[in-house]
Design a protein that fits this description.
Distance between the termini: 26 Å
Order of helices and strands: EHEHEHHE
Number of helices: 4
Helix content: 40-55%
Radius of gyration: 12 Å
Strand content: 15-25%
Largest sheet: 4 strands, parallel
Amino acid sequence: MKIIISRTDNLGDVVLTLPLAGFLKEQYPDSQLFFIGKAYTKALIKASKHIDFFLDRDFILKNPDELKLIAADAIIFVFP
């Protein structure tokens, strides 16, 4: 299963969203987790042992067909 988590706002919001990745990996241990975020959050997101791939928000906005290539089973848009 491929799951995309999208949290494209600021660093603190990304920090608050990372436990969701752990929960998803616990529920779906064989899943691949992708995280869409701002470029400056990349190091933080990649530091999570639960996230398999980082996707840069600006790159995705310019190249939306890249999401089709992932063929995700679900996308979770995390907003307050």
